[in-house]
């Protein structure tokens, strides 16, 4: 009887070791995200996916926006992050602070965050879970994935549905007029930075007296 193993091409021990190392690294990366002790909320624990037009804020910017959101939401406040996962992750690092947060995001990798994750596609701005009540958030932070009026307009529908009033929008400087038109927000002095430099000048817009000026 022939040995069944004969048909299987044998990898050289070097290739095999390299392959095992690669899989091990991959497992560790995935495993770290779920295991205890790893900060699953830290920026970069989920890598940005450019095909989804994702660009994470620098650590400093994410912290600054998270602090602003906490202040604006007030004690026991509710914060919604619409397509702004790096701010969400920063908010989750602020343990013990008195607020709650939801993330509305197209990228299903963020479902690791459990019930706080709500799948969101700006093309269907009001296709939201029933338990997400209108005007139930003290502040909405949004970063529409594309610099187009259509994307802003649709995201604006979602923002207006969710917020009790306060809006913090991050988008390109070129969107200033549209942002005012669709959301009544004005540009702040604060300039958000990204972990990788973007070609487009990026700005923050608010409709309340914020700490970003």
Automatic annotation (TrEMBL):
Keywords: Cytoplasm, Methyltransferase, Transferase. One of its GO terms (cellular component) is cytoplasm. It is found in: Cytoplasm. Its main location: cytoplasm. It holds the Pfam family N6-adenineMlase. GO terms for molecular function: nucleic acid binding; protein-lysine N-methyltransferase activity. InterPro entries: DNA_methylase_N6_adenine_CS, Efm5/EEF1AKMT1, Mlase_EEF1AKMT1/ZCCHC4, SAM-dependent_MTases_sf. It comes from the Eukaryota. One of its GO terms (biological process) is methylation. It catalyses: L-lysyl-[protein] + 3 S-adenosyl-L-methionine = N(6),N(6),N(6)-trimethyl-L-lysyl-[protein] + 3 S-adenosyl-L-homocysteine + 3 H(+). The keyword Cytoplasm applies. The keyword Methyltransferase applies. This is EFMT1 methyltransferase. It comes from Promerops cafer. The lineage of its organism: Eukaryota, Metazoa, Chordata, Craniata, Vertebrata.
């Amino acid at each position: 009887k022939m040995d069944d193993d004969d048909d299987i091409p044998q990898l050289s021990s070097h290739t095999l070791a390299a392959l095992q190392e690669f899989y091990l690294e991959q497992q560790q990366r995935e495993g770290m995200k779920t295991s205890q002790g790893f900060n699953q909320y830290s920026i970069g624990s989920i890598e940005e996916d450019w095909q989804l037009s994702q660009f994470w804020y620098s650590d400093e910017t994410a912290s600054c926006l998270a602090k602003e959101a906490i202040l604006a939401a007030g004690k026991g406040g509710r914060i919604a992050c619409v397509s702004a996962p790096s701010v969400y992750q920063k908010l989750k690092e602020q343990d013990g602070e008195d607020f709650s947060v939801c993330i509305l995001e197209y990228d299903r990798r963020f479902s690791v965050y459990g019930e706080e994750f709500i799948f969101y596609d700006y093309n269907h701005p009001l296709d939201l879970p029933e338990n997400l009540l209108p005007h139930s958030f003290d502040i909405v932070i949004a970063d529409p994935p594309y610099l187009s009026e259509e994307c802003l307009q649709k995201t604006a529908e979602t923002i207006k549905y969710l917020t009790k009033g306060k809006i913090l929008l991050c988008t390109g400087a070129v969107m200033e007029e549209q942002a005012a038109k669709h959301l009544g927000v004005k540009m702040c002095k604060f300039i958000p930075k990204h972990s990788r430099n973007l070609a487009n000048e990026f700005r923050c817009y608010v409709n309340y007296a914020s700490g970003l000026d």
